[in-house]
Specification:
The complex is a heterodimer. Chain A is of the alpha+beta class. Chain A folds into three domains: 132 residues, Helix Hairpins, CATH 1.10.287; 66 residues, HSP40/DNAj peptide-binding domain, CATH 2.60.260.20; 91 residues, Sandwich (HSP40/DNAj peptide-binding domain). In chain A, the strands form four sheets. In chain A, strands 6-7-11-10 form a four-stranded mixed β-sheet. A three-stranded mixed β-sheet of chain A has the order 1-5-4, with no helix packed on it. Chain A has a two-stranded antiparallel sheet with strand order 2-3. Chain A is elongated, with a radius of gyration of 33 Å. Chain B is mainly alpha-helical. The chains are: A alpha+beta, B mainly alpha. At the A-B interface, α3 and β6 of A face α3 and α4 of B.
Amino acid sequence: MFLNIYQEMTFIDYYKILGIEKNATAVDIKNAYRKLARKFHPDLHPNDADAKKNFQQINEANEVLSNTEKRKKYDKYGKDWQNADKFEYANQSNEQSSGFREQEYSGARSGGDFSDFFESMFGGSANTDRSRSVKFRGEDYNAKIQLNLSDVYITRKQTLTINGKNIRITIPAGIENGQTIKIPGHGGTGINGGPNGDLFITFSIANHEEFKRLGNDLFVQKEVELYTAVLGGEITIDTLSGKVKLKVSPETQNESKVKLKRRGFPVYKMDGQFGDLYVTYKVKIPTNLTEKQKDLFTELSKL
Amino acid sequence: MEPTLIDELIPVKEFCVYHNIEMSFLNLLQKNGLIEISTIDSKHFVEKEQLPQLEKYVRFYYELDINLEGIETINFLLQKIEKQQTEIVKLKNNLRFYDVFA
């Protein structure tokens, strides 16, 4: 609901956002704000971008309506409120030239009681006394990093550019797809000396074409020649940490599995601990048999 | 309990001045087991690690007008949500494994 009001219209109906009437009293505004803030406060909705946006709108609405001067201007100019500053300036000039400058407008352009709201929405630049005295924590940032499975097999460092700032982070081996890590203090700058927000990074780990991951275990399929499966032998398989030689027992069945201990994925933040690697044998039936091979198979089948 | 480095401690008094709050609020949080306050040479400190959580409680109490019982309940539910979100990520990954491997 809030999102649509905010995105589709240049004019924002703050009364509608707070769900109050235009003649709402200061107490009504405070109560409405508190009620909605309790519902949408980002602290109550971790990692919920929609709730965060809603809260920003509620905050903005409260910022304007709870301030007598801002509310007065907002009510006065309505949909033209963006140009209020220009209107006021024009008014001021007219009144000055005609010699009827009213007290109401004096200092309107320098007082800045209107501009801190503009600052958040249109890049204006001023603060009210209220905002000067209150410390706000900076905004939390959310980022998404896409990596391959092999990228998170070892702990690595990566430099990210967040809002023009370079941040070097350590990505611990074994991080899960969808996992979010918090980098404290690397979010938005705090306002009026308030603490900085945090940076939340969510990892999206692409599937590997060969290895499948389930928790800390890895799964791989390996083709085995029919003769090796029947008579036994040795094969070499690729793991994420290099090649491994494996003995195949005689009479190995198709789809049979072997477990290679500690050859799986590193356990997140548990140095030196690994999951297991499961190898599923896919017995390969020979094709394009020669006449001699066919004869020998026939002979075998008759034994 | 592991000893804490002095650099990792924040004086309670400083925290209260910075946030313009009463010390009694922190005492209440401690009394209800929501934070831990260490005392060294008669001075009270909170561990840096507790800071985000503590600031959250301050916002709940002073900005949202939520009382201590409410904070306790919210804290419990948020921990539960966090646990469930982790579980959802794990289950989604398991599902992805079977989707691809099937």
